[in-house]
Design a protein that fits this description.
- There is one protein chain.
- By secondary structure, the protein is mainly β.
- Helix content is 0%, strand content 50%.
- The strands form two sheets. Strands 2, 4, 5, 6, 9, 10 and 11 form a seven-stranded mixed beta sheet that branches. A four-stranded antiparallel beta sheet has the order 1-3-8-7, with no helix packed on it.
- It is globular, with a radius of gyration of 13 Å.
- 31% of the residues are buried.
Length: 123
């Protein structure tokens, strides 16, 4: 069973930076499209960013474009999300997801999910 484990969440202040990581176990990481989604309190889970297997295609939600950077390291089975200029609206549980096909913004397209890591941004 493929397992995704997120790390790096925490409590930060407005304007701070934070890097999330997601390690994939028992899967062929280099073949997966990877993505980050988030769910804020009282809201539905939403797309944040996705990266193709070869890092050739990266897609960002408009709300994070220019502030967040997705990257992956296939040799280490890790995908990261560098988050800069954080604001209160970025407070959410962040989820890592994987799929065996190309990049997608839609949750329903992803095969595997992590348990999530909490990011809280205080003003």
């Amino acid at each position: 069973q493929v397992q995704l484990v997120e790390a790096g969440g925490g409590l930060v202040q407005t304007g701070d930076s934070l890097t999330l990581s997601c390690e994939v176990f028992r899967g062929t990481f280099s073949m997966y499209t990877m993505a980050w989604f988030r769910q804020a309190p009282g809201k539905e889970r939403e797309f944040v960013s996705t990266i193709s297997w070869d890092s050739g295609l990266k897609i960002y939600a408009d709300s994070v474009k220019g502030r967040f950077t997705i990257s992956r390291e296939n040799g280490a089975n890790v995908v990261r999300l560098q988050m800069d200029s954080l604001n209160v609206e970025d407070t959410a549980v962040y989820y890592c997801a994987a799929r065996r096909a190309g990049p997608s913004r839609y949750q329903r397209d992803y095969d595997y999910w992590g348990q999530g890591t909490q990011v809280t941004v205080s003003s």
